[in-house]
Amino acid sequence: MKRLSRVLAAATLALVASTAARAQEVTLDVLYAFPAFAKFHEPIAAEFMKKNPNIKINFRAPAASYDEGHQTMLRQSVTNQLPDVYYSGFHLLTELVDTLDKRKQVVDLGPMLAAEPEAWRKANYSDALLSLGQVHGKQAGLAFNASTPLMYFNAELVKKAGGDPEKMPDNWTDLLALAKKIRTTDTAGLAYNIHDWPDDWLWRGMVLQGGSTLLSADETKVAFGGEYGQKILETLRSLVTEGGMPLIDWDQSRQQFIAGKMGIFFDTPARLRQVTDLVGERFTMKTALFPIDDKAKGKLPTGGNAALITAKDPAKQKAAWEFIKFVTGPEAQKIVVESAGYMPTNLRAGDDAFLGPFYKDNANFRTINGQVSRAAPWQGYPGGNSVRIWRQQREVVSGVMRGDITPKAGIERIVSETEALMK
């Protein structure tokens, strides 16, 4: 009888322990943008779950773009169907956090970060990296992906046109001159697919590289109007008239570049691995820094996203913090860089234990790090109409590049429509 009692007691303890273990299990609902980015989100989540067996990561169907994800979050904020973790595009972060804050639906990561050892914080995140996830001085998120526009080019076509693949033009006038020489009846000189880009990242690239800011100091007016903005639109028109840029969609431009029928192609470094693999041995593909007309004040918009916690349950918030620390850590950032091409958002990621050997063997992936000093925050417009503003700006930019709208009329329309939507 005593033996039976001991067996029953042991079984009861085992059941209690098992139940307690299950009770500690947490499943996090996670939403990110761009289905193709499953190539790094999935392996990162798998590695995290291996190290944290009591936390399960469940990905919702990815949003088609940052803009689409943003609209989804705004709708689900109203219906209280938000995910536990969301990766917000930097340019929409302020607008989203302002909306979620009103309903207390986003977690301030500042106290969580402050609770970590100071030495750990300094070893992993610089002030600049942390600032990418801040809204009104609050640490709303941690930067997960970061990128600035990157130049890809066909070294053989550049050399054939008299250019030097080891020293590509560093300003738009010289780049256009080279593109004009590359251009033939069946080969495009270059492509800068701003006319069909899903957000205003490439537009801001043109605005900031020339030394301007996007908005006035009081954020009531745009700062790129007049002759400055007219020059930008004239340059964009010249891409077509002089550089032979075909006004086709981004994917078609990419295919033309991969086929060896385009000399220079601008894209996010996030697709560097994909393009590298598709080019294969067709030609020697290289990367170069984005052309900057104003070397003293020129900047570039930092694309990418920050991971936010929108979970309400304390246990989920705690688990989500562990997840965010991991995805912005050196191990996860190594996966991101090697599978895509982004700039790492962790200070330790470049160490020999992580990306050091990879960068040594893959110069094209290392190029983007040369633009870190020019990286500027990619902020949205005041007024809550950032998505709509770009869609209207893009319509005008496309019209100018097609030759249907003059650059002067185009910038006047962009300024007036943008400022009207900012109010």
CATH architecture of the largest domain: 3-Layer(aba) Sandwich
Beta-sheet strand percentage?
5-15%
Low-confidence stretches: 7-22
The whole-number mean of residue pLDDT values reads 93
> What do we call the CATH topology of the largest domain?
D-Maltodextrin-Binding Protein, domain 2
How big is the Rg?
A: 24 Å
**Total domain units:** 2
Task: Give the CATH H-level superfamily of the largest domain.
Answer: Periplasmic binding protein-like II
- In spatial order, strands of the major sheet run 2-1-3-12-6
Number of strands: 13
Report on the biggest sheet: 5 strands, mixed
Structural class: alpha/beta
Keywords: Periplasm, Signal
Protein name: ABC transporter substrate-binding protein
Main location: periplasm
Subcellular location: Periplasm
Set out the fold topology.
Elements: H1 2-24, E1 26-31, H2 38-51, E2 55-59, H3 66-79, E3 85-89, H4 90-102, H5 110-115, H6 118-124, H7 127-131, E4 134-135, E5 138-139, E6 141-147, E7 150-154, H8 155-160, H9 172-182, E8 188-191, H10 201-209, H11 226-241, H12 250-258, E9 262-267, H13 272-279, E10 285-288, E11 300-301, E12 303-309, H14 314-327, H15 330-339, H16 356-361, H17 363-366, E13 375-376, H18 386-402, H19 407-422
Parallel strand pairs: 1-2, 1-3, 8-9, 11-13
Antiparallel strand pairs: 3-12, 4-5, 6-12, 7-9, 7-10
Describe this structure as you would to a colleague.
It is found in: Periplasm. InterPro entries: Bact_solute-bd_prot1, SBP. It comes from Bosea caraganae. Belongs to the bacterial solute-binding protein 1 family. By secondary structure, the protein is of the alpha/beta class. The chain has two domains: 27-147 and 302-376, D-Maltodextrin-Binding Protein, domain 2 (3-Layer(aba) Sandwich), CATH 3.40.190.10; 150-300 and 381-422, Periplasmic binding protein-like II (D-Maltodextrin-Binding Protein, domain 2, 3-Layer(aba) Sandwich). Helix content is 49%, strand content 13%. It has helices at residues 2-24, 38-51, 66-79, 90-102, 110-115, 118-124, 127-131, 155-160, 172-182, 201-209, 226-241, 250-258, 272-279, 314-327, 330-339, 356-361, 363-366, 386-402, 407-422; strands spanning 26-31, 55-59, 85-89, 134-135, 138-139, 141-147, 150-154, 188-191, 262-267, 285-288, 300-301, 303-309, 375-376. A five-stranded mixed sheet has the order 2-1-3-12-6. Strands 8-9-7-10 form a four-stranded mixed sheet, with helices on both faces. Strand 1, helix 2 (38-51) and strand 2 form a beta-alpha-beta unit. The N and C termini lie far apart (82 Å). Mean pLDDT is 93; it is low at 7-22.
